[in-house]
Amino acid sequence: MKLKELHALMQDIEPFAQPKVQLEQYPTGADIASRMLYTIEAMYNDIEGNVVVDLGTGTGMLAIGAALLGSPCVLGLDVDPDALDVAQDNCEQFEDPLPVREPRCHVCTLPRGSSLTSQISA
User: Is-contact 55 83, C-beta < 8 A?
Assistant: First the structure.
């Protein structure tokens, strides 16, 4: 996928209606997100065919972009259920289902030695 195509697909991703400053919910625009993800894939081949975890996914901007670039499984984690609702709505705007899951998870509360996947599927 070309950068211009990725940017065009990502520019319709909705931002937060009311960001929560205490959770540092600052918007990541489609321009910077698409350029960053495109560079990661083009230079390092770290997205297509790989599992991607987006910690603090917020609106899902980076998670959705990773899915569009060929990640077969993207986990968008966030502590804010409102953010996860926005991310889910953003994922649903695409015709083809994206391989993105958005569980509510605070990674600092995971028991030591536990597996993230076991916490998500629980």
Answer: no
